[in-house]
User: What shape does this take?
Amino acid sequence: LFEKEAVFDVNFPQNAFPNTRRAEIKIYPNMLAHVAESVEGLLKRPYGCGEQTTSSTYPNLLILKIEKELGKNVEPRIKAQAENYLEEGYRRLLNYQTGGGGFSFWGKTDVPNAALTAYVLRFLRDAEDFTEVDETVVARAENWLLSRQNADGSWDTGKGNRDVSTAYVLRSLSLTAGNDAAKRKALQSAIEFLKKR
Assistant: This one.
């Protein structure tokens, strides 16, 4: 690749400000090098409602997972910021768990939502390798989801397709089923529901 000569045409607008014309070329040894450079752009301070808090915290978790699972060192400053934002996001999420254990969009006094609870549950399971996650928070969310399962094995999430909702809740709960007979029975019921669809 580097043995040959190449020419690139760079076209600047005629009305570009003087002394602002500039071009830069970057050559990456592999795709991971490109990803590593982009990691800092993933850092996000958690914000917003229950769903937004989870979504804005996830990239920080992914940065930490890249380092752990791929064995690639993340710059210490970026890693520290990702850890701080992950912890901040986790603490914010606790404010969205209702008294019954489900998670809501707007806080403890709002109505919990099954899809959001499944999303948060998945996030908590992913996060527990990188921050201390209270198992009672997880257990309450799981129990709330299990209590909302319909007799036919499905879950309603308020909007959208029951098949998709059921598959998503099933996926989140399956991460921790283990040998728990009640969970396994609920998951099997959901699988049977989906098989008929």
Summary: The longest helix spans residues 50-70.
